[in-house]
């Protein structure tokens, strides 16, 4: 019974480390995507044409980075999704206007 319990514990520890790393890398990738969208919006003069969407995207991205730095990957991912959504809405509105 002792060997079985030790193996179970080791597998459980390994699994928890693997799954916790997934949150880190996926959130980091999403932050990079949001930064790219925000830079595209900035290049399309989004700050002048769609200030609400631009400011929202920028603010949500900053909060996401703060949450990421505090190792709260779930909250960071939520904020980065909102940032991407605002940036995409801004880009769509800029394309309509041009």
Mean pLDDT: 89
Give the class from helix and strand content and strand pairing: mainly alpha
How many helices in DSSP terms?
Answer: 4
Runs with pLDDT <50, length 5+? none
Shape: rod-shaped
Helix fraction, binned, reads over 70%
- Share of residues in strands: under 5%
Order of helices and strands: HHHH
What about the largest sheet? none
What's the number of structural domains? 1
**Would you count the extended β strands for me?**
0
First-last Cα distance:
71 Å
| Quaternary organisation | single chain
Q: What is the CA-atom radius of gyration, in angstroms?
A: 19 Å
Any key phrases for this structure?
mainly alpha, rod-shaped, 0% strand, 4 helices
Question: Could you give a quick summary of the protein structure above?
Answer:
The protein has 98 residues and is mainly alpha-helical.
Describe the structure.
With 98 residues, this protein is mainly α. The chain has one domain. Helices cover 92% and strands 0% of the residues. It contains four helices and no strands. Helix 1 (2-43) runs antiparallel to helix 3, helix 1 (2-43) runs parallel beside helix 4 (73-97) and helix 3 packs antiparallel against helix 4 (73-97). The longest helix is centred in the N-terminal third of the chain and has 42 residues, at 2-43. It is rod-shaped, with a radius of gyration of 19 Å. The mean pLDDT is 89.
